[in-house]
Design goal:
Blueprint: H1 6-35, E1 49-59, E2 66-71, E3 76-81, E4 88-93, E5 99-104, E6 111-117, E7 120-125, E8 130-135, E9 141-146, E10 154-156, E11 161-164, E12 169-173, E13 180-185, E14 187-188, E15 191-192, E16 196-202, E17 205-210, E18 215-219, E19 226-231, E20 249-255, E21 260-265, E22 270-279
Parallel strand pairs: 1-19
Antiparallel strand pairs: 1-22, 2-3, 3-4, 4-5, 6-7, 7-8, 8-9, 10-11, 11-12, 12-13, 14-15, 16-17, 17-18, 18-19, 20-21, 21-22
Length: about 280
């Protein structure tokens, strides 16, 4: 009978132990992934896609890392830009892209979404938990407030401020105290939709850029359900596509008097007025 020593036994057992360990790890990983049912913009399956036509195209500062956009009146747009050391709040002439007035944020702040409230502009910052309030006419800071989440997008429905934090949650804030009043859980096909970024309130619905894509979700605020999307991936000429000198779409503004929708993106050289068409897969 051949001699079998301890090393031979170990040589036979160890590989099987490794196989069993790997199998158990893969099963655990699969279960963890299946437990997370949230989705991002690129996974918006079976959601009606609205077509669009470009009505007008305007110059836009290609150095502006757009994080917030809002239309005021008389073809004036306010724009919030991001990046540390480059964040700002600007008053911009729509048709020419000329910056009429600008205030720069502290180098320690990363500017995010903005919204108009009365004669004030409210601006979020990313990870500082700090909101800034300015007088609309001269962009002078008039107040500050805090929040516990990250700051991403901001808009107003004429009753409250609506804030995103990069998750699927929209925070409804009192515009005077900035305290949270309620939340909206945003879902697409029954699953949480993460990456909610820049926001705009348009005719009773919330439009949200979905980071890190160039898609916009159209959200019903009563239920949080996404009823449609707009895909801006191909709106820029091919020579200026995402991944070259520009980043993803981010920036939605609405002129309620003339029913005009404006969109742009981070480091985009153009700002577009678009008109929506019937969903392609409705």
């Amino acid at each position: 009978m051949p001699r079998i020593d301890a090393f031979q036994i170990a040589d036979g057992i160890v590989p099987w132990m490794i196989y069993l360990f790997l199998a158990a790890f893969l099963i655990l990983l699969a279960s963890c992934c299946s437990a997370d049912s949230s989705i991002h913009g690129e996974d918006l399956n079976n959601i009606p896609v609205f077509g669009y036509e470009i009505v007008n195209s305007y110059p836009h500062d290609p150095m502006a890392f757009t994080q917030g956009l809002v239309y005021d009146r008389d073809d004036l747009i306010y724009e919030g830009t991001g990046l540390y050391g480059r964040s700002s709040l600007r008053k911009v002439e729509l048709k020419t892209g000329r910056v009429i007035e600008q205030i720069n944020l502290s180098g320690s702040l990363f500017g995010e979404g903005i919204a108009l409230w009365g004669e004030s502009i409210v601006q979020l910052t990313w990870q500082s938990g700090l909101g800034l309030v300015y007088g609309k006419e001269n962009l002078t800071e008039t107040g500050r407030f805090g929040y516990r989440t990250e700051g991403w997008g901001l808009t107003s429905d004429n009753h409250s401020l609506i804030m995103s934090d990069g998750s699927n949650i929209l925070h409804i804030l009192d515009p005077e105290t900035f305290r949270e009043k309620e939340r909206i859980n945003v879902t697409a096909g029954g699953r949480p939709l993460n990456g909610l970024n820049e926001l705009e309130y348009i005719k009773g619905e919330i439009y949200a850029n979905i980071w890190p894509t160039s898609r916009i979700a159209i959200i019903l605020p009563q239920t949080g359900e996404v009823r449609g999307e707009i895909d801006l991936t191909s709106i820029l000429p091919g020579s200026q596509g995402v991944g070259q000198s520009v980043d993803v779409a981010n920036g939605i503004a609405y002129d309620g008097e003339s029913d005009r929708i404006f969109v742009t993106g981070k480091l985009w050289p153009r700002l577009y007025e678009i008109r929506l068409a019937i969903p392609e897969n409705s």
